[in-house]
Amino acid sequence: MRNETTINPKTIRKSRLSKKTREHLIAYSFIAPNFIGFALFTLVPMVFAFILAFVKWDGANPMEFTGVSHFIRLWKDPTFHKALWNTIVYTVGVVPLTMVCALGLAILLNQKLFARDFMRTVFFFPYVASLVAVAAVWNFIFSPTMGPVNNLLHALTGVPIEDLPRWAADKDWAMFTVVLFTVWKNMGYYMVIYLAGLQGVNPELYEAAELDGANAWQRFRNVTIPQLAPTSFFVLMILIINSFKVYDIFINLFAGADNQLNDATRVLVYQIYNTAFRSLDYGYASAIAIVLFLLVLGITLIQFQGEKKYGQ
Prior knowledge:
Helix content: over 70%
Oligomer: single chain
C-alpha cells in the first residue's frame, strides 16, 4: 500500500513567510550602511543641536539649562541681525540672476550651433572646478590695483585706478562681487537642469504656435515658460536653500589669514561656526542653527506644496 504524505498548509505559509523575511533582511542590509551613516552623522547631531539650543555649554563645563534665553538673545544681537540680512541680500541677488543666466544659456545651447557640446562643457566647468582655485583666480582678476578688470576699466574710461571699485576688498562692493562670482560658478549646473527640461517640451507646441503666427518672443512666453514651470520651481527652491546655507564661497573670497569675515560679508552659517568654535558658545550657536533649520524647513514645505500643485 502506497504511503501518501500530507502537506500541512501551515507549513507552506511558514516557509513562505520565512522566505519573505529573508528577502526583507537582504533589502535592509543594502540600506543599512547609508542609514547608519545618516543616523550617526546627521540625525544624532541634529537632535543634540536641538538640546544644546536650550542649554549653556562651552564643551568643558557641565551643561546648564537656560530655557529659551538663547532665542531671546537672538533678537537683541546686532551681529545675528547683520548675518541674517547679508544672507537674505545674497539670496535675493543670486537666485534671480542665476535663473535668468541659466535659462538663457540653456535656450541658446539647445539650438543647433557650431561646437555646441564644447560650449556646454565650458559653461559647466566652473561648477566642477575647485572652489579654492577659481576663488584665487577671481580675486586676482578683480584685484583693485593689478587686476585686468580695473585696468581695462581704467583704459576705457580714463578713471584713475584708485577711484575704481575695489570689489572684494571694499565692503560696499563685496556683496555685489560675491553675487557675480556665485552666478558665474553655478549657472552651468542649472543650465544643465534647464536643458533637461527643454528636452521634455513637445516640439509640436512650437509648430502649432508658429502656424498661428506667433513670433519668437510669443513662443518663448506662451510655450517655453509654461512648459518649464516645474523645472523653474525646482531650480528656484534649490537655489534658495543653497543660498541660505552658503559658507565656503564667502570664506574663500573674503577671509584673510585669520579666516575671519567682517560685518559686510558675515552670513548665517559663518556666524554659527564663529560662535561655536571661536567663542565656544555651543548653546547659542545651536540656537542660530535652529533658526536656519526652520528657515530652510519653511522653504522646503513651500517646495512640497509647489510640487503638489504642478503634479496635478
